[in-house]
Amino acid sequence: MSIATTIAEKAQSMIPLEMQIRGAHMYDKTRRIVTRTDGQKIFTETPIPPVDEVALADIDLSNPFLYRQGMWRSYFERVRNEAPVHFRPESPFGPFWSVTRHADIIAVDKNHEAFSAEPFIIIGKPPRFMDIAMFIAMDPPQHDKQRAAVQGVVAPKNLREMEGLIRSRVREVLDGLPVDEPFDWVNAVSIELTARMLATLLDFPYEDRHKLVEWSDLATSMEEANGGPSDNDKVFREMAAMAQGLSSLWRDKAARTAGGEDPGFDLITMLQSNDDTKDLLDNRPMEFLGNLVLLIVGGNDTTRNSMSGGVLALNQYPDQFEKLKANHDLIPNAVSEIIRWQTPLAYMRRIAKKDVILNGQFIRKGDKVVMWYASGNRDERVFDRPDELIIDRSNARNHIAFGFGVHRCMGNRLAELQLRILWEELLVRFDDIEVVGEPEYAQSNFVRGISKMMVRLSPKQDK
Ligand code: HEM
């Protein structure tokens, strides 16, 4: 390690996290004023033309409005069929390759020797200083060490412990919903349940749980990173608040454990009882923040949008809804199919570490490679009638929404558990969940988000 790095690390560990972020904010603001980019939007929404009016080479799959405008299916279908490994020389995020077929995506995701997850897994890059190190964007061996420190939080034993708590929280939320009148499902159910789950995972003060959602939403919506609408000043302010909130959570937990309180099954306890990570906040504060943000972000948009996407899909395919109501044993398979259909994260990106040939295309060392899970999950070579939701589809579990290889989603079992419980509890309470009007979709090329969806519930007659 160089002397400069040692000094930088020492300085980092001596200055409180939130002060470091405030300093970074001042730097970023000055930079924006000097470069006259303050307040400038990068993206303005314009109607996207039908795909057959665009030359293959001009297709830009990074357009953050493709999903919102419902154009993504036709665009990906054409690229999958005509140029499955597609090069886009120019985009607001620079040149990049798109990998769009199921088999090719798995080949890239499994090959961390040739394709690096560093330094970011989004197509662009976050504003300077917002690029906190997280193990989702690290290669082995560093990745493996950091993942090992936290993965106990979602180990089968822990999930069994959590199941009862998740169920009681789901029941509480569902029993408080209005019936026979429209309300926003996203706010009342998807966001509320995800916030409760995140507070449980972190043993975060329950009454403040919505802060976790706000922080996570800000961290995943950055124009330069993925085309999401963002306000850099707000992001920095909230990141400082988050650093402060999570640091005091850590210190409070340590004091309670020292005072003889039983250790819980939450993430903070997990990190504090592991030799490698017990001094994380004091010695490597940015890594501390990165690990916690990853867990919060990882479990936020993804589960939320699967909860909303499931209701939407079952409304678009009412025969499947009837099938599910008639046979609750289909719920586990339906959950996998809903995750395939929604694919809450559109992609992960990699950088080629060496020259590689992929499906006939020559990818040069250093090139950016985007694995479009959203496309692979609609690949007609693997899934019959891929755009349809078929809850008893025999290969629903072959979806790639959780990725593959060393980075395969750490929370996949937890996400499935939450969704299974949600549907079990919904089906015993309501005869119908009717989507009223058109849902609203998020602006992003990364998160496939449903931002608002009005629904009307019909209670079960025999309840
Ligand atoms: C339906 C819900 C979810 C989906 C679709 C999803 C999707 C993903 C994807 C695509 C990856 C990257 C995989 C790769 O690069 O190969 C990932 C990684 C990750 N997810 Fe999830 N996720 C979900 C739920 C969760 C939950 C609930 C948590 C919280 C515990 C979580 C925590 C993580 C973490 C920590 C990683 C990084 C793993 C690593 O780099 O080793 N995810 N997820």
N-C termini distance: 66 Å
CATH architecture: Orthogonal Bundle
Overall form: globular
The Cα radius of gyration reads 22 Å
How does the helix and strand content classify structurally?
Answer: alpha+beta
User: Level of helix content?
Assistant: 40-55%
CATH class reads Mainly Alpha
Summarize the structure.
The protein is α+β, with helices and mostly antiparallel strands and 463 residues long. The relative contact order is 0.16. The N terminus is likely disordered.
What would you note in describing this structure?
The protein is α+β, with helices and mostly antiparallel strands and 463 residues long. It has one domain: Cytochrome P450 (Cytochrome p450, Orthogonal Bundle), CATH 1.10.630.10. It is built from 18 helices and 12 strands. The protein has helices at residues 3-14, 17-34, 72-82, 102-110, 142-150, 156-175, 185-202, 209-220, 223-226, 232-258, 267-272, 280-283, 285-298, 301-316, 318-326, 331-342, 373-376, 412-429; strands at residues 85-88, 96-99, 115-116, 183-184, 347-352, 356-358, 361-363, 368-372, 430-435, 440-441, 450-452, 454-459. The strands form 4 sheets. A 5-stranded mixed β-sheet has the order 1-2-8-5-3. Strands 4-12-9 form a 3-stranded antiparallel β-sheet. Strands 6-7 form a two-stranded antiparallel ribbon. β1 and β2 form a beta hairpin. α7 packs antiparallel against α14 and α14 packs across α18. The radius of gyration is 22 Å and the shape is globular. The chain starts with a helix and ends with a strand. Residues 1-5 have low confidence and may be disordered. Residues 109, 135-136, 147, 154, 294-295, 298-299, 302-303, 306, 339, 344-345, 348, 401-405, 407-411, 414-415 line the site of protoporphyrin IX containing FE.
